């Protein structure tokens, strides 16, 4: 079941982040960013769907992608804590996106040559989409970090707030079908620090990294998010429209 | 029989960009027979393309309307790229007012470098990107600096 669990971890990362991004829909400061964030949400939710469908097949217990998304409780969700962090302001949302996409792009790159054809196919799409996300989010980090005093203050606050959460992404997995996550760390460091330098941001001192997401121990914000996301299927099981 | 069924499936228009068909876009990968059942193999453009389900239903409906028993299969690998849009499809996009994607999408340069996007109306190459994200997930938003018309650019992936 190592593969099933690894697929669920990945799928949960994408669905939770996708739901967070979708919370911006209709609330972004301008139309093009509203579209951008909704597009980001579509990308990662689409990837989540493919991953859940594959996980359900690997599990072979007749569960569907919807069962996995809507009928698991908070403690059964295995996403990393970073993706469940609340949207906060634009600086927080874009930094969270940048950290995640900066991790996923090389991850998918390494999956492209996987013997598992389904996961390689998912990677083929996702790797390109993550490239877009990195570019867009990095532009915002530079713009905000080196912008006005206000935007710089907010960007630095986002760096400080999210600092305990990125390390968990690199925690090793027991599944040997997927790439070694810890091995992606040096490349991630280089690309993040390069953008920070252009944005005039300092890399903070190491802090104690928050972990727990991979064993279902989440911050309270995830429960609230799921109660919103799963409400319909919980109240009207099997509802379709 | 598969050839005839292909013709039926291939004629289904894209719901978001009705000027092109699923065959023009290269998302109809294959039509094969499984006994008496026509199996149409489709691939999504973007992971989260909201039109995927709609397109699958439309192709199945078209095949059934033509008297076939039909089934749809989703193919993820190899991943679709804009290079699969046919030349005829590109021309139709241009005529419809959407700048077609530049070729050679597989290179990183196409994704991260500066690409020249010609205005689909006047052909001018003096254009500017207004937004990386346009009216659908597969498009970006541009403006022509010569004829001043805004237009959609089919992103190159």
Quaternary: heterodimer
Q: Can you tell me the overall shape of chain B? A: elongated
CATH class of the largest domain in chain B: Alpha Beta
Shape of chain A: globular
Determine the number of helices of chain A (DSSP H or I, runs of at least 4 residues). Answer: 10
Give the H and E element order of chain B. Answer: HHEEHEHEHEEE
Main sheet summary of chain A: none
Q: Pair with the most extensive interface?
A: A-B, 30 and 24 residues
Strand proportion of chain A = under 5%
Query: Which parts of chain B are unreliable, with pLDDT below 50 for 5 consecutive residues or more?
Result: 105-112
Remind me, CATH topology of chain A?
Answer: Ferritin
CATH architecture descriptor text of the largest domain in chain B: 2-Layer Sandwich
Side-by-side strand order of the widest sheet of chain B: 4-7-6-5
CATH class of chain A: Mainly Alpha
Number of domains of chain A: 1
Q: Describe the biggest sheet of chain B?
A: 4 strands, mixed
CATH overall fold name of the largest domain in chain B: GMP Synthetase, Chain A, domain 3
Structural class of chain A, please? mainly alpha
DSSP strand tally of chain A: 0
């Amino acid at each position: 079941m190592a593969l099933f669990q690894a697929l669920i971890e990945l799928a949960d990362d994408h669905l939770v982040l996708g739901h967070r991004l979708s919370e911006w829909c209709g609330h972004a400061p301008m139309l093009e960013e509203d579209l951008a964030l909704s597009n980001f949400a579509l990308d990662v939710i689409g990837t989540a769907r493919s991953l859940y469908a594959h996980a359900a097949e690997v599990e072979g217990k007749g569960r569907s992608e919807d069962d996995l998304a809507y009928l698991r409780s908070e403690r059964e969700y295995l996403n990393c804590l970073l993706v469940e962090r609340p949207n906060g302001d634009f600086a927080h949302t874009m930094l969270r996106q940048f950290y995640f996409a900066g991790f996923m792009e090389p991850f998918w790159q390494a999956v492209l040559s996987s013997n598992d054809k389904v996961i390689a196919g998912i990677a083929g799409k996702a790797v390109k989409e993550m490239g877009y996300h990195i570019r867009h989010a990095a532009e915002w980090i530079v713009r905000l970090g080196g912008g006005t005093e206000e935007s710089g203050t907010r960007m630095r606050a986002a760096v400080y707030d999210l600092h305990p959460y990125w390390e968990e992404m690199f925690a090793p997995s027991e599944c040997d079908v997927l790439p070694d996550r810890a091995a992606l760390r040096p490349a991630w460091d280089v690309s993040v620090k390069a953008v920070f330098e252009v944005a005039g941001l300092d890399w903070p001192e190491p802090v104690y990294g928050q972990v727990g997401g991979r064993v279902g121990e989440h911050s309270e914000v995830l429960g609230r998010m799921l109660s919103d996301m799963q409400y319909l299927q919980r109240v009207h099981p099997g509802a379709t429209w | 029989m598969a050839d005839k069924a292909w013709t039926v499936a291939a004629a289904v228009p894209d719901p978001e960009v009705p000027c092109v068909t699923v065959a023009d876009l290269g998302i109809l990968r294959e039509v094969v027979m499984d006994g008496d059942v026509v199996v149409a193999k489709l691939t999504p453009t973007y992971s989260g393309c909201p039109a995927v389900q709609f397109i699958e239903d439309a192709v199945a409906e078209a095949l059934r309307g033509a008297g076939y028993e039909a089934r749809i299969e989703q193919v993820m690998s190899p991943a679709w790229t804009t290079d699969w849009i046919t030349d005829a499809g590109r021309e139709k996009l241009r005529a419809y007012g959407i700048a077609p994607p530049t070729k050679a999408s597989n290179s990183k340069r196409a994704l991260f470098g500066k690409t020249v996007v010609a205005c689909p109306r006047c052909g001018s190459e003096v254009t500017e990107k207004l937004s990386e994200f346009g009216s659908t997930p597969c498009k970006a938003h541009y403006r022509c600096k010569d004829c001043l018309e805004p237009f959609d650019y089919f992103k190159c992936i």
